[in-house]
Amino acid sequence: MTGGTLAIRARGLSKVHGEGQARTRAVDEVDLDVPAGQTLAVTGPSGCGKSTLLHLLGGLERVSAGELWLAGRRIDRLGERALARLRRRAIGFVFQDFHLMEELSAVQNVELPALLAGRTPRTARRRALDLLDRVGLADRAQRLPAQLSGGQRQRVAIARALSNAPLAVLADEPTGNLDTAATNDVLRLFDSLRSTGQTLVIVTHDERVAATADRVVSMRDGRFVDDVHLPAASTGGLGDLLGLGG
Amino acid sequence: MGQLILACRLILADLRHRPLHAGVFLVAVGAATAALAVGMSLSDANTGQYERTRAATRGPDLAVVTGTDGSADRAALADLARMPGVTGHGGPYRVLHTTVRAGGRPAQASVQGRDTAPATVDQPYVTSGHWVRPGGAVLERGFATALGVRVGDRITVAGRRFPVVGIAVTAATSVYPFEGEHLGPNDGSGLIWLADNDIRTMSSDEWPPNYALDLTLADPAATDAFRQRVADWSDAHADRSVRLSTRPWQEISAQNDVILADSQSTLVIGAWLLAVTAVAGLASLAALRATEQVRRAGLLKAAGATPGLVAAVLFAEYLVLALVAAGIGLAVAWLAVPALANPTGSLLAATAPVTPGTAIAVGTLALLVALLTTLGPAVRVARTATVPALAGTARPLQHPAGLTGLAGWLPVPVMLGLRLAARRVRRAVLAAAGLATAAAPVAGLLTWHFQTDDIPWYGDDFIMAQRALRLGRTHHTIVVLAVALLVLAALNTVVITWSTALDARRSLAVARAFGATPGQVTGALAIAQLPSAVAGVAIGMPVGVGLYWLVAPTTVTPPGWSLLLTGAAVVLGAAVLATVPARIGARRPVARILGSNLG
Ligand SMILES: Nc1ncnc2c1ncn2[C@@H]1O[C@H](COP(=O)(O)OP(=O)(O)O)[C@@H](O)[C@H]1O
Ligand SMILES: [Mg+2]
């Protein structure tokens, strides 16, 4: 495979936290290729380095060693500002605890990355309303986060992640704070994203969430210990899964 | 464009959701800008009011009075009025310096004899009643106000009773209480106009009148040159022993300013003290929401905002507030200065336009506060990497090893308190700075108190001398500033103790879980404020005395015991204030704090 068709490519990717006795190799020489359009689930026990890996992929943290490409462009050497610009256009983050701006309305939260990227207010607003419609919250556009349920907040966060039509959406335990019904809403949303060809990396320790992916990598102590491509039939089982969950 | 809109939106949303923070900023910085704007505008406003009064009364360019020995005569003044360069004159008028009584109170006054028709030069502007008529007196407005006299009241001049028929202002003398026209003891004199005939009957050979002449000149700006010619001219008439005292309008105007001089410097110094307090208070207030602010920044950074943009948004928010505060300060000055610049009411009111100098100084002060207030959060945001920022991980604490070792020997509240104080050095510095600015005017007041014993009281028991008047104004100014600074410092102490209680809540909860009582914890939180309170007072009191000395170099330094006692009182006050938020902090249930993940 060449770098060009890959959304994400990593070689010997490492991240060391702390110094001396507190030194932890959170991510330890990981090689990873994520083709465009793939939904990748990263699983593993707590503390195995999943979040750190995601932060590295999204340029939220600087790598300690290794090489990293996003859509064929080398990004491990970029500075803080360049990484910020890159995140704006190429990455959409979804966090476990949503991280919405409490003082901005749903639609204002969704259009935030578009405005940061320099889109005109009118374009940004139109796109934000489209996205809110897509996540089923068109009627909640003017609500503040505090006036939304957890599941609704996470859907707003997902819409925000899609604001600049990013190369990859990186989600860190997106259902960790949600009840079953809300989890199913979010999974359904990811499923529809996958069908549009959106590259998606989901960190989760929830087997049900992992089961909806094209591929599951398992981590332990900062390394990949397993890499399974799920057959289409299995992933198509989301409907069954939801049937069970609901 | 999009970024600009976003920045505006973030700023507006933040202001809307935290009106208290914005309100405190506006009050604190508005007080500082107002003090500065008032301090810097007083002199200009006073000059402007004199100019308006001068225009409205056809004020003289040069006021001339004959010598006190009465040997000069009217002929000399008549010669003077015919000198080249003189374009108009009023007088000569008979003038007596005497004691008047109003409502049983005696006061010094110059009494001028006037025609019932208006003069060409110096037509006093009647603000109530009407102009002099035989048997009826007109009082200068500042003098009338000080005496509490109105039209229709009666006054006694040299033993004769006169009804007050009018009240007027003039530009031919300085403002009350400097209206003595160089006769007798000048300070503390008022001005009265009577019909000339009434004065003539009062004066006698034993009590000869002086004469006053008002001149307008071809070149009003060149009064100094003309004055020199008058001096040469009277030297040439040495045989006639002519002794003339001259006062150009510029000197009259400058004398008006004297009452205000100390207040102006006090206000300008006070403004900068207020600004320091504001920065200290706002920084501690900002520390209360540091975690939240860092999280917000992390979120923006995760969405692709550069650290520069995040800092710019922070700064822009304070800049907006600072500009509003500057506007408030200038508006307050615009409204208050006409009254403040005319303390005795001897001038016609006039609003002073804000000069570019004042606007720049006020803007600079507000800008500095905004910059310094942004600095803390901006550095904090820049220093925190995005991931820990999102996680809301608190800053690591500083534990000086020596203190921790020493702490084992001390009683529980003192040990806990010192540890708390040592944990946040920056906060301690802010608290010290805030208290120092409050201690300074307190020391100033103390110094003032030790000056009052030796004020010279001229003649009468109710009219204060120039020095007393100046000291009186200074006193008012310092009291106002001290109150403002003490209120801000008190607020500051409460906020700082509260934020100490908040971010030490886990360790204090642990201490309580292991047996520390709420009382000990309250004590610890109050004691934690002591080192910075002592430092603040130790710096602030000498600074206050020093500043007072700077404004009034003849100052008597207050005795050391009084400074120590006052300082101790301020420290005690701060500690007592600190117990209020400390008690609330110490009463929170231990289990809930330890159970929460907030750190
Ligand atoms: N900022 C940090 N400083 C020090 N150690 C860290 C930091 N972030 C994560 N770690 C450590 O790195 C390891 C991996 O953490 P993380 O990526 O959060 O794991 P996961 O998301 O799989 O639970 C853990 O041992 C964690 O303690
Ligand atoms: Mg994690």
Automatic annotation (TrEMBL), chain A:
**Translocase keyword on record:** no
Q: Which domain of life is it from?
A: Bacteria
**Ranges of residues in domain ABC transporter:** 8-246
Coiled coil stretches, renumbered: none
The UniProt keywords, alphabetically, are: ATP-binding, Nucleotide-binding, Transport
Pfam families in alphabetical order: ABC_tran
Q: Which InterPro entries match?
A: AAA+_ATPase, ABC_transporter-like_ATP-bd, ABC_transporter-like_CS, ABC_transpr_LolD-like, MacB-like_ATP-bd, P-loop_NTPase
Q: What SMART domains does UniProt report for this protein, alphabetically?
A: AAA
Q: Name one GO molecular function term.
A: transmembrane transporter activity
Would you tell me the Gene Ontology cellular component terms?
A: membrane protein complex; plasma membrane
Its recorded name reads ABC transporter domain-containing protein
Species name for this entry?
Actinocatenispora rupis
UniProtKB/TrEMBL annotation, chain B:
Keyword Ribosomal protein among UniProt keywords: no
An example GO CC term for this entry is: plasma membrane
Indicate the segments forming the MacB-like periplasmic core domain, all copies: 27-231
**Cell location:** Cell membrane
Protein name (database record): ABC transport system permease protein
Taking every annotated instance into account, which residue ranges of this chain make up the domain ABC3 transporter permease C-terminal? 270-384, 480-587
Record family assignment: Belongs to the ABC-4 integral membrane protein family.
Keywords for the protein's UniProt record, in alphabetical order: Cell membrane, Membrane, Transmembrane, Transmembrane helix
Listed GO MF terms = transmembrane transporter activity
Membrane topology term reads: Multi-pass membrane protein
Query: Would you say which domain of life the source belongs to?
Result: Bacteria
Q: Which InterPro entries match?
A: ABC3_permease_C, MacB_PCD, Macrolide_Exporter_MacB
Query: Transmembrane ranges?
Result: 20-42, 267-288, 309-337, 357-375, 428-450, 478-502, 523-549, 561-582
Q: Which residues form a coiled coil?
A: none
